[in-house]
Amino acid sequence: MAKSKVLIVGGTGYMGRRLVRASLDQGHPTYILQRPEIGLDIDKLQMLLSFKRSGAHLIEGSFSDPRTLVDAARQVDVVISAMSGVHFRSHNLLLQLKLVEAIKEAGNVKRFLPSEFGTDPSRMGHALEPGRVSFDEKMEVRKAIEEAKIPFTYISANCYAGYFVGSLCQLSTLTPPKETVCLYGDGNVKAIFLDEDDIATYTIKTIDDPRTLNKTVYLRPPENIVSQRQLVELWEKVSGRTLEKRSISAEDFLASMKGLGYAAQVGMGHFYHIFYEGCLTNFEISEDGEEASQLYPEVQYTRMDEYLKIYA
């Protein structure tokens, strides 16, 4: 069976570039939307050209010209969106509504994967303001996909290791603290952490898999389901250092959000749901979902003790 042709939108971004590499590695004819909006961003252009040298195809297209999006969609079987949804970088989730319209008009796309790759938004109707905007917008995109009867797969990839693991889940750094670590509550609420390259590998594996059609795929590799406290203990073992642990209560954590900027409040709201509420692990996967490590046991995913060694 021929591998599906894949178009990746946002192919130079944090997840997008990993999806491009995973698609190429798994043998898919891989296309990247080259948007004129990159202007003089030489780093993005050179990344696109490096992907082209690796065998990817570049398709020019712009969200300001819907016809180009339709033309791009007609050249492929699968569209994956990796549009940014984090407020401290760029937040473009609702641009995907134009992509949905283009895919609907093209009429040939057999699978669309919108930009999610985090917490399952369908479970976050209770989320705190202002952080709930991310989940609400993802649900708006889902509604458009399903109303257009576009075949889909949603990816719930939980916590990116790059943002959460190196910092031991601290808010204001990306590297391990040297003396003191802040624990959220008692630090025992379980979360799920994944190397971003593994997220991309699992994602690409879903696109030709009939088991994942019109389902949410949860990335829950069992050895990476750990609490913040366990993550700290892994770091202490890897680094040979012992950190002082300070706990912050849920009430104090929420109170500390007041007066902060919008992006900071969004991020802290997400941290609250993950580390106090346990929103990533406090439910069983329903019949509308699948679990990636069970579907694809051949993937040798990165364990977090191995991941942490680069920081030691």
Automatic annotation (TrEMBL):
Pfam families: NmrA. Coiled coil: none annotated. PANTHER family: PINORESINOL REDUCTASE 1-RELATED, PINORESINOL REDUCTASE-RELATED. GO terms for biological process: lignan biosynthetic process. Keywords: NADP, Oxidoreductase. Residues 3-308 form the NmrA-like domain. Transmembrane segments: none annotated. It comes from Eucalyptus grandis. The keyword Nucleotidyltransferase does not apply. One of its GO terms (molecular function) is pinoresinol reductase activity. This is NmrA-like domain-containing protein. Belongs to the NmrA-type oxidoreductase family. Isoflavone reductase subfamily.
